[in-house]
Amino acid sequence: MAPLSSAPLGSAPPRPGQETAGQAAPPVPERGAAPLRAAPGRDRGRAGRSRTCPAMSGEWLRRWRRGGPAERPGGAPAPGPGPPPPALRYRRPKFVPGGGEEAPRGGRAVRGAAPERPLPWGAGYAEVINAEKSEFNEDQAACCQISVRRREPGLEEDEEWLILCSTQFLTGHYWALFDGHGGPDAAIIASNYLHYCIKQKLEEVVGGITEAQPPMHLSGRCVCDSDPQFVEEKHIHAADLVVGALENAFQECDEVIGQEMEATNQTGGCTALAALYFQGKLYVANAGDSRAILVLKDSIVPMSSEFTPESERQRIQHLAFLFPKLLDGEFTRFEFPRRLKGDDVGHKVLYRDYFMEGWGYKTVEKADLKYPLVHGHGKQARLLGTLAVSRGLGDHQLKVIDTNIEVKPFLSCIPKVNVFDFAVHDIKEDDVLIMATDGLWDVLCNDEVAHVVRSFLAENRTDPQRFSELAKCLVCRARGKKRGHQWMLDDSHEASYDDISVFVIPLHNREED
Q1: Is 215 helix (H, G, I), strand (E, B) or coil?
Q2: Smallest Cα–Cα separation from 2: which of 323, 489, 388?
Q3: pLDDT score of 511
Q4: N or C: which end of the chain has fewer CB within 10 A?
């Protein structure tokens, strides 16, 4: 998304049994937004962060993996005396060869996963750095196998929290992309921690997931004889518990990011797109503007919705209506087709408020001349003139430049979760899930991506690395070719200047896993 300083930011050492989870990326003003407000006393420099600022501690990772009740988010004690924990250093995902170093920027070389370390389901992955928008690639990726076990409330977790034993545990698979902005720290924490949050939240409801119908009481106790009927009337199924676990996991991860950012005086946030295969269903959770689609033999199934200030205008305006002090007298909640001018005062102009999907006319008052809460169109739309996304993780310290107005109250960390049930679909060999950050979707539509997918797989049926090569092909297509000082698509339109990250996940391979 945006630039970053060269201060390395790396990963805590992997635990036994834990598999590959990607690491994160670098900071900067954010996705085409107004510059972020610097922390007091910090020289952020052109990259948005001081090259000499202390790196984020690795204590959070060990702290919450240990799982002691007093160390949970919201009640974590300050680290005791002793040597400081090792720093989390900037690196690319662990499954990318040479992940500790950034790829040379000049030719924007496409990087993929190491063939000798296959990803779950034989998935393909590829990435490319931006065209000098920022100093580092700010996209991050993670994937792993998650095993869920029944755990009594209050019981401390074992150190080995990923135990791969399919006979005693429910096993799922996880892939995720994080697109950082305003700094690398939120994406680093999310790429290391979100899958753990998901595992933890699934374990809290596993007793209901394994039942034909989730019980009213998790313990199985029946206070009222008609409890099962009430649950049935609400149409509550096991899949609803998984969706709830994902929503809770995103919220907990956001809280952890906020605590760590405050403790280390860092800023920034990230979008999050996660796919979880669990109990025969595929769950795709999205908070931000990344996208996932299923490319099937005869159809395209969107598995996510992008959340921008435009798409969530009414929710954002309603918050401003309920809590006008959040705007601090600097913004108007109303939307107008353009910025109003002094000559508009006293005249009726087109407008929209929080309760309106359509448009109306209102008489312009002097207060309406303030900057709109949501302004711009498409990729230029901004929340409070600052952010181009309305959902994501982090951004707890973000303020509108030169004001004391906090952006976080208008943001949501809760994802929209879409579910795909394999039991009611006949999955073919070339059916895949495509997950990508907005760097791909800015220049390629769903139909174009699906055409590339189908053509490539049909022409490379015997290549054992075809899904990895397809991921690289998609990244190359969106990156384009350099002509002079510009990056151009084959049709001579401007290519993507953003970081681009892509997962290609073959659905048919789940049977072989």
Answers
A1: coil
A2: 388
A3: 62
A4: C
Q: Which residue has the higher pLDDT, 257 or 220?
A: 257
Neighbouring residues of 430: CB distance < 8 A, sequence distance ≥ 6: 297, 453, 454, 457, 458, 506, 508
Q: What angle do CA 397, 82, 19 make, to 5 degrees?
A: 65
Residue type, 352: R
75-106 pLDDT tens trace: 444 444 444 334 456 888 888 887 666 656 66
Q: Is the pLDDT of residue 27 over 60?
A: no
- In whole angstroms, give the CA distance from residue 237 to residue 232: 8
Q: Taking 60 as the threshold, does the pLDDT of residue 478 lie above it?
A: yes
Q: Residue 454 in 3-state DSSP?
A: helix
- 3-state DSSP call for residue 458? helix
pLDDT top residue among 276 and 11 = 276
Taking only the tens place, the pLDDT of each residue in 341-370 is 999 999 999 999 999 999 999 999 999 999
Domains, the chain, with CATH or none? 59-307+412-511 (3.60.40.10), 313-388 (no CATH)
DSSP symbol at 366: G
Burial class (CB in 10 A: 0-12, 13-18, 19+), 155: exposed
Cβ(471)–Cβ(461) below 8 Å: no
Look at residue 103 in the predicted model and tell me its pLDDT. Answer: 58
Torsion sign over Cα 378, 379, 382, 387: positive
> In which residue are the tokens 């909640």 written?
333
DSSP 477-503: HHH-EEETTEEE-TTSSB---S-EEEE
CA-wise closest residue to 126 among 455, 448, 429, 435:
435
Task: Render 299-365 in DSSP notation, one character per residue.
Answer: -EEE------TTTTHHHHHHHHHH-GGGGTTSEE--B-SS---GGGTTSEEEEB-TT-SS-EEEE--
Residue 433 backbone dihedrals phi, psi, to 5 degrees? -100, 125
Element (H, E) at 43: none
In one letter, which amino acid is 425? H
Predicted structure pTM score: 0.81
For residue 506, the number of C-alpha atoms closer than 13 Å in the C-beta half-sphere is 26
Q: For residue 338, what are the CA distances in angstroms to 318, 343, 368, 376, 447?
A: 20, 13, 11, 8, 32
DSSP 155: P
Contacts of 425 (CB under 8 A, 6+ apart): 296
DSSP calls for 224-235: STTHHHHHHHTT
